[in-house]
Amino acid sequence: MLATEPGSANKAAPLAICVGCGCKTRRTGDNGESICRRCSLKGRTCMRCGKALPRATKTLADGAVCGTCVTYYREPKPCPVCGQMSLRLSRNATKGFSEQPVCEHCQRKGNVTCAGCGKNRHPAGTQADGKPICKSCMARGDNPFVCETCGKEGKPHSKIMCQACYWRKCADK
User: Fold this and answer.
1) What is the pLDDT of residues 42-73, one digit of tens each?
2) With contact defined as beta carbons under 8 Å apart, do 103 and 89 qualify?
């Protein structure tokens, strides 16, 4: 027997009119008024960053949290390698951490500053003078980096933009 059938012990709540949009609903808000799901989510924001939040990643007693901020509301766990408590444990199969998630510090062990781009990365080789370089700089070889934005040679910020164009773009925002 279904819960909504006559004679059933568990009866569904009667339909009521939503105070927000006028549609029929069985939901009631905190104040006892009938309100549909769509209207109850209007104006909801992340309690940490204030971003509009139509779909919450985590709902707490104080409010809802977006996907970006949810890591700040997790319980810290110990890293299996170093034992340090961390909110951000993750796996990284390319660096050999596929079985257990480890902290960011342990994942970055062995990284060095690349002589080609200046970023803190895993070394893939060395230049002629013996300085370590990353995989993307090694793939470029002896060819200098040419920025697709300005057309000049320079230090790369990404695969298509030099550091000067990146900082200019940030300053224009």
Assistant:
1) 778 899 998 888 777 788 888 888 888 888 88
2) yes
